[in-house]
Design brief:
Elements lengths: L10 E4 L4 H4 L29 H7 L4 E5 L8 H14 L2 E6 L11 H9 L2 H7 L3 E3 L9 H20 L3 E5 L8 H11 L4 E5 L8 H6 L5 E7 L2 E2 L2 E2 L1 H14 L5 E4 L8 H21 L1
Parallel strand pairs: 1-2, 1-10, 2-3, 3-4, 4-5, 5-6, 6-7, 7-10
Antiparallel strand pairs: 8-9
Helix pairs in contact: 2-3, 4-6, 6-7, 9-10
Length: 285
């Protein structure tokens, strides 16, 4: 018999996991101040973003992460409407994910930092607990890291004043390994949090590297690796186990990114059950 443990606050879903159901995107870019037109990047889709909180609640997931390119509008009216829909469903907006920008490029970092700052009010109005930004895409030279750290420090002060936690992710060329991630976190001394991602370091030594950062993570993108036979359970379980062993106790954001299941919720729920099985075993001692 499965151990009855309340995991209601241990799981979240990213809108990326529903990108086929949503279909269209709105690719906001720091190089263009105008709001982007709707683009059917993954087909026309069959739901709108406003429907996602209700779907989350119906599937027993009560935390949600929103990719910036899924927001059809940043207008105060739309943002308020979405927040009401989330509150009605009992779903917390865990993170607004800002999906563009580079704080390590000397030619554009200032512009991109100002563009990211422009999202802070949106995150706060959505009721988002966190806002994730891209630390940088340049190779991790000392100069590139220092530039990103400087901009992150300013952004963190602004997000904190708005009641939102700024987080970064082990993602792109600036943060290719634990030494770079830990350097940035150490330099910023608690001002910025970490969203650890299982799928961004797909290489030899990834488990050892993840183990060196997941104890510092406040959030986790639990991306399942899907093969032709389905979910790579051994890989997924190992990532969850090493995170738990490192001391990670935050929510697991279920990232489903595969054509294996036609219905994306089938993949999301498969990932949740796999992680829940690990957590039950841990709870049972």
């Amino acid at each position: 018999m499965a151990l009855a443990v309340d995991f209601s606050d241990r799981f979240a879903v990213s809108t990326w996991s529903l990108h086929r159901a949503l279909g269209c995107i709105y690719p906001y870019r720091p190089s263009d101040s105008a709001d982007p037109a709707r683009q059917p990047a993954y087909g026309e889709g069959n739901i709108e973003l406003i429907d996602v909180p209700r779907q989350c609640a119906e599937h027993g997931v009560f935390r949600l992460e929103i990719c910036s390119f899924h927001l059809p509008s940043r207008s105060p009216d739309y943002v308020a409407e979405f927040r009401r829909a989330a509150e009605k469903a009992g779903v917390k907006v865990q993170t607004l994910l800002i999906e563009d920008g580079d704080l390590s490029d000397p030619d554009t970092a200032q512009r991109d930092a100002e563009w990211m700052a422009g999202w802070i009010g949106v995150a706060a109005s959505l009721g988002a607990e966190n806002m994730r930004v891209i630390a940088g895409k340049r190779w991790p030279t000392d100069a590139a890291l220092a530039m990103a750290e400087s901009h992150l420090c300013v952004l963190a002060e602004m997000t904190s004043a708005a009641g939102v936690r700024l987080v970064i992710e082990n993602w792109f060329d600036l943060l290719p390994g634990p030494s770079e991630v830990n350097r940035v976190l150490d330099t910023l001394d608690g001002k910025v949090g970490l969203n650890g991602d299982f799928g961004n370091w797909e290489r030899a030594g990834k488990y050892e590297d993840l183990a060196k950062i997941m104890g510092r993570a406040e959030l986790c993108h639990a991306k399942g690796r899907y093969l032709t036979a389905g979910l790579d359970v051994a890989d997924y379980v190992r990532c969850v186990e090493l995170s738990n062993a490192a001391g990670y106790r935050g929510p697991f954001t279920l990232i489903y990114d595969s054509p294996y299941h036609e219905n994306e919720w089938s993949g999301i729920l498969e990932e949740r059950e796999c992680i829940a099985g690990v957590l039950r075993r841990v709870a049972a001692g």
